[in-house]
Amino acid sequence: MRRYLIFGTAGLSLLMSAIDSMAVSVAFPSFTREFQTNVLWSSWTISIFFIAVTIVVPLAGNLADSFGRKKVFFFSLLLFTGSSLACGLAPRIAVLIAFRFLQGVGGGCFLPSASGIVSDNFPENRETAIGLFSSIFSVGAVIGPNLGGWIVSQYSWRYIFYINVPIGMLLMASSMLLLEDSKMFTRPRVDLVGVLLMSGALLFFMLSLNVIGESVSTPFILFGALLVVLSFALALCFLRQEKRVPSPILDVTLVQSTPFVAANITNLVIGMTMIGVLSFIPLYATSVHGLSTLMIGVILSPPDHSQ
Q1: What 8-state DSSP symbol labels residue 36?
Q2: pLDDT tier at 87, thresholds 50, 70, 90
């Protein structure tokens, strides 16, 4: 019975993160309107979350093996819950973006650490348990837009974040009571320099697109081009760093593999398209067609392909 409660704790944490990541898309027009900002800056509330997840996921498994899955899982819950409260209280868009990044860091730690917890508690049915656990994210993708649309239409976009606080506190209490850490930890091998270089490359590239999109004037274009050059320079430094360290974030030999590169280019295009659509549809539906927030949530729900 205990291990099923552990599975429920790990699964609910992933569901909470999945719902939140999708529900924010519905609140996108509300950010633009309430903070009196433009679409470019409001879109950072979505993209910065996924940037943080991208940065943290390669490290989370290493940290869980080094410090124990229970500690990493509890820390991710604490960070996600605390940053959710801060997002709900954000007085301006810059503060919301900053805490969305921290929320992404906490959310990015859920999947690796929780997957390890599920794997440890179901050794005889590991593949089935991990498969069921992974499918929870798809469930969250369906619930998120609908729940977010209902919350925003009935209350406020801030309650999308507030609702995570009691759930997160419940999960923290549950993890403290149910989880047990392994006594065998490996020595921490975290490539902090690689993390900083990768983070800088991603953030400067995103910022360059934002700056160029702000205005077509020469100073903005030149500044945006400078940020692009800086981003690519950091990316090259990151690749050189990964060749030298014993425990790299990215195995550089994979970059030389054609199937690996092709698969990730495909994922990049799909991700750009998906996030772009999720960002554009709510604003378009409200400003052009005058649809309600609740209806936007229905529109953003993935279609049923079972028929």
Answers
A1: T
A2: very high
Per-residue pLDDT at 290 exceeds 90: no
295 in Cβ contact with 140 (< 8 Å): no
3 state DSSP class of 245: coil
**Which residue stretches of the chain are H helix?**
2-26, 28-34, 39-42, 44-67, 69-88, 93-121, 126-134, 136-154, 158-162, 164-178, 192-214, 218-244, 252-255, 258-287, 293-300
pLDDT at 76 over 80: yes
Q: Domain with 120 in it: what CATH number?
A: 1.20.1250.20
Give residue-wise pLDDT tens across range 189-226. 677 788 888 888 888 888 887 777 766 677 778 888 88
d(CA 228, CA 234): 10
Residues of the domain holding 172: 2-186
Does 302 fall in a domain? no
Residue 71 lies in a domain: yes
In this structure, is residue 52 part of a structural domain? Answer: yes
Domain total of the chain:
1
